[in-house]
UniProtKB/TrEMBL annotation:
Organism: Nocardia iowensis
TM annotation in the entry: 77-101, 155-174, 181-199, 205-222, 227-244, 357-376, 383-405, 411-428
Keywords: Membrane, Transmembrane, Transmembrane helix
Name this polypeptide is given: Oligosaccharide repeat unit polymerase
Region Disordered, residue ranges: 435-460
């Protein structure tokens, strides 16, 4: 089998998504282009590197997959990418159909809350609360990292989510009168998300911040300079993440990493830190080796998806964790995971293949696309909790590397954050109402001979 055929099919599908997205108004195209870039790193860049270098699997290097190396990179990559190519073309079909439909619809106006004088103040208050949660997590040593099964302190972890949500909201909606102030605020928020990216060892915060900048430009208007700036923020952010992580490594660990990277061509070495953080090819390999079925029935998947929206305190039992189940049961079918406890990103197409074969891939592709459209509408809502949900989706990985089960788990957490954000907004609005200076009463001049007696009104 020739793996280049599958790679070309995937490349054409992603190019179709990008071309269709560029014809769309509003912010939906931002996420569609971001999805194409994200999936290209997992399903194009990594396979091409493996086919070119054919590296031997070794400890500390997750770019080569031992299963693909043992099976043979040519045949292995061709087989594990079959359902991915099918799913991406299904997704591209949804995108093209929507692009043709939306061209006849009226253009989206500015977000409803962008003119609310209390909106930015509420986001700033939420950011302060979230920073307190982040600081408390760092001080108590309970910061959760990427792939961890359980948070050491779920309350602080939940509060810290508010900082991410509100930071993205401020990047999108803050409108100071002076351009220099805008640059300082957005630059400070980006640095804060980059630092938090390094602390939690996850690429998601800085990617969310780059997306927020892109959404801001999509609302205010694009230029070539703005497009280049967004791409630079994303690349430099992930590269800066690797650099910040290296500051915490010992000299021995740095030397070991340099030795591992030296086995790759010099042209590829600068990009290895990025490629190692986009691992959906491993999830596609998991799905191929496991095969369709024998994991969850459709009824079990639906029940777990619905219960994910209910807080654990109300549910009275531990909720199903799809990332952990994927690691233990799906990847565990081909890799020894008995001594490893981790939560993995499965990807929508891979989850769909395991749940229901190629029909399952189509269903999961449709779910992701509908979720993207709902996210785009949420940012334009006039209701603050709905906007919080949209901002939370912007800062999550649900639309990039999670399936239906993982996305519903994220939505469950974000619903609770939306409720807390709504309570904060009530407090901020009441405080600003009480402290806002009242205009002086307007007195009308009394004409000669006129009476000052007030006439009765039916509304009194």
């Amino acid at each position: 089998m020739n793996p280049i055929n599958e790679v070309l099919l995937i490349a054409l599908a992603l190019a179709t998504i990008v071309v269709a997205a560029t014809t769309m108004p509003g912010v939906a195209r931002v996420f569609l282009i971001a999805q194409a870039a994200f999936w290209s790193l997992s399903y194009l860049a990594r396979p091409l590197v493996l086919l070119w270098v054919r590296p031997e699997p070794r400890y500390g290097d997750n770019v080569p997959d031992p299963r693909l190396a043992e099976f043979g990179y040519d045949r292995g990559i061709a087989l594990v990418l079959e359902h991915v190519a099918f799913g991406l073309w299904v997704y591209a079909g949804f995108v093209v159909a929507y692009a043709l439909w939306v061209r006849r619809r009226p253009r989206a106006e500015l977000p409803a809350l962008s003119g609310d004088p209390d909106f930015v103040a509420t986001l700033a208050a939420m950011y302060g609360v979230g920073l307190f949660g982040r600081a408390a997590s760092i001080a108590t040593g309970t910061v959760g990292g990427a792939g961890e099964v359980d948070s050491a302190n779920p309350i602080l972890s939940f509060v810290a989510i508010l900082a991410t949500i509100s930071a993205l909201g401020l990047i999108i909606f803050v409108r100071p009168s002076r351009p220099a102030t805008t640059v300082l605020i957005i630059g400070g928020l980006l640095l804060g998300e980059l630092a938090w990216t390094a602390v939690v060892e996850s690429k998601t915060p800085i990617i969310g911040a780059a997306l927020a900048v892109a959404i801001r430009f999509a609302i205010l208007g694009w230029t070539r300079t703005k497009a280049v700036s967004v791409a630079a923020i994303a690349v430099l952010g992930i590269g800066g993440f690797g650099w910040l992580q290296s500051l915490k490594q010992t000299e021995y660990a740095k030397a070991e990493a340099a030795l591992t990277d030296s086995s790759y061509p010099p042209l590829i070495q600068p990009f290895l830190s990025i490629l190692r953080r986009f691992d959906l090819l491993e999830a596609a390999t998991d799905a191929y080796y496991h095969g369709p079925g024998f994991w969850l029935t459709p009824a079990e998947a639906l029940r777990n998806a619905v219960t994910s929206l209910v807080p654990s305190q109300l549910l009275g039992t531990a909720k199903f964790q799809s990332g952990t189940a994927w690691a233990q049961e799906v990847r565990g079918a081909s890799v020894d995971m008995t001594k490893v406890s981790v939560s993995l990103a499965e990807g929508n197409l891979n989850e769909g293949y395991v749940l229901g074969g190629y029909p399952g891939v189509a269903v999961c592709a449709g779910f992701t696309f509908l979720l993207l459209l709902a996210w785009g509408k949420a940012l334009y809502s006039r209701y603050y909790p709905v906007v919080v949900l949209g901002l939370a989706m912007t800062g999550s990985s649900a639309l990039f590397e999670r399936g239906i089960l993982g996305s519903m788990e994220n939505l469950g957490k974000f619903l609770q954050a939306a409720v807390l954000g709504w309570l904060i907004s009530l407090l901020v609005r009441e405080y600003r109402r009480r402290t806002r200076p009242q205009p002086p009463p307007v007195t009308e001049p009394v004409l000669a001979g006129a009476t000052t007696e007030k006439k009765a009104s039916p509304w009194d």
